[in-house]
Amino acid sequence: MSDDATVRAGPPGATVRQQLDQTSRLDAVVLGDTGTGDPPPADGTAQLVAVRGPSVGTRYPVAADTVTIGRNPGSDIRLDHVTVSRRHAEVHRTGGRFSVADLGSLNGTYVNQERVESATLEDGDELQIGKFRLVFRAAR
């Protein structure tokens, strides 16, 4: 991209013009990234990273043997949206393995777009709870 770039978007004639200086120069543009692009956490704590929904970019640590997910203010991971049940799901850590269990939620819990009652989680799996999509990043 040149220092004086014109980007055309929308109806014919609509343009956005931006002057780029040396400090704002883009090295790459990523469109439609389905993962987080981040390596797994190195501190031994797994994470759920929000990639879609009201809290995109938020990282939720999965540090305890049982982590509750729901709309309830007392949840370990609070997802405050009407599509999330008060007590929606739990993530369990047994040894070095992780699993998710639905707690009878109205809208269900999905792993990689399949509705599950319970499922083992692997690094990179996508967990959907209501309007939230979270990528599971396993501990190293």
Highlighted features:
140 residues; Tumour Suppressor Smad4; mainly beta
Report on the structure:
Residues 1-21 are annotated as: Disordered. Residues 67-116 form the FHA domain. This is Phosphopeptide-binding protein. There is one protein chain. With 140 residues, the protein is an all-beta fold. It has a domain at 46-137: Tumour Suppressor Smad4, CATH 2.60.200.20. Helices cover 0% and strands 43% of the residues. The chain is built from no helices and 13 strands. Strand 3 and strand 4 (59-62) form a beta hairpin. The protein is globular, with a radius of gyration of 19 Å. The model is unreliable at 14-36 (pLDDT under 50).
Topology summary:
Layout: E1 4-8, E2 15-19, E3 46-52, E4 59-62, E5 66-70, E6 77-78, E7 89-94, E8 97-102, E9 109-111, E10 114-116, E11 118-121, E12 126-129, E13 132-137
Parallel strand pairs: 5-6
Antiparallel strand pairs: 1-2, 3-4, 3-13, 5-7, 7-8, 8-11, 9-10, 9-12, 12-13
Question: What portion of residues is helical?
Answer: under 10%
Radius of gyration: 19 Å
Q: Main beta sheet, described? A: 6 strands, antiparallel
Q: Strand order of the main beta sheet, please?
A: 4-3-13-12-9-10
CATH fold topology of the domain at 46-137: Tumour Suppressor Smad4
Keywords: Phosphoprotein
Region (Disordered): 1-21
Domain FHA: 67-116
InterPro entries: Cell_Proc_Reg/RNA_Proc, FHA_dom, SMAD_FHA_dom_sf
